[in-house]
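The protein record quoted in full:
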Amino acid sequence: MHLTRLALTDFRSYPELGIELGPGVTTFSGPNGEGKTNLVEAIGYLATLGSHRVASDAPLVRRGAERAVLRGAVTGADRSSLVEIELNPGRANRVRLNRTPMPRPRDILGTLRTVLFAPEDLALVKGDPGERRRFLDELLVATAPRYAGVRADYERVLKQRTALLKSAGAKGHLRGPAREAMTTTLDAWDASLARTGAPLLAGRMRLVTALRPHVTAAYEAVSGGPAGEACSLSYRSSVADDLGSALAPSLAPGDDGMAGLEALILKALAAVRSSELDRGVCLVGPHRDELELSIGGLPARGYASHGESWSLALALRLASFALLREGHEDPVLILDDVFAELDAGRRDRLAGLVADAEQVLITAAVPADVPDLLAGPRFTVRAGVVAGAS
């Protein structure tokens, strides 16, 4: 698939913008701070309903405006679609697909698929576990949009269960009927957490298994390093030290493992209940898990060099692209100010890996940083004005 038109109204630095795009490589160049990243941020939002830079929608609306509107025309092998999003900070956003209002914003997920690599992605390697969990969950939704609902259900239960634990802790050591009532209520929320957490956990485990060979191959291709510096990734769950082995005895032929996973989550919750009540936090579940990354047998976080960290972050995004294109149309690949962070060797190797994608959108402060292999239309961006392609 590829994006054929992007139109923005009062989004970030753009009062009004409309540009035509086509397949192949397109580069947006200009000094930093002029609005290049705002463009790819808007495209990413049309695909994921979120920004890779900020957690809330308020900063996305141009100062002085009440709302922002994003429109993207998408062309695929079988159909063309128009996605429209109206951002209303403090109120519900409005979403339309082919001019038809959608009852839930997430109903448009999958219409436009993107893989975006940006400088912020260094946090995938060097940042907290939450960065890597978010990476897995966003990729899950990109591979199967139904996981947006799975993720939302789990987060809703987690929030309510955590509030109950905090309330119990604030009341001190309960006795008698009050303690029995709290125990009964927690039992019910434990069941809900297990029921909503099991499919999210199973999806992540399957995803890591599918992603692993792609990450290994992409890291080797980008880094150009010796085989002894190969990378690896594994999923460490708070439910059990070796979740695969713990789950195996409960699996029957053809079983998807949901019942076994729910039972394991309930068992783990029972084991930490006292600690949870003391601390007022939920200690077991997908929100406590970790995607462990290593290079040459050592944890990437804390041991990897700057170049190795960049190569691994790139490998994660390239592996995502490879996974999403399997049996499907290519997602739109976005490289936001990436080449400035790479040495010449990594630049050329990255260019060779992405040149055959259906659509590649690149931002660069210095056009010369973009390898000649990635030739195509070039726009210039200055003061929020996008000049015609050359």
Notes: The mean pLDDT is 90. The longest helix spans residues 176-223. The chain is about 45% helix and 20% strand. The CA atoms of residues 232 and 275 lie 33 Å apart.
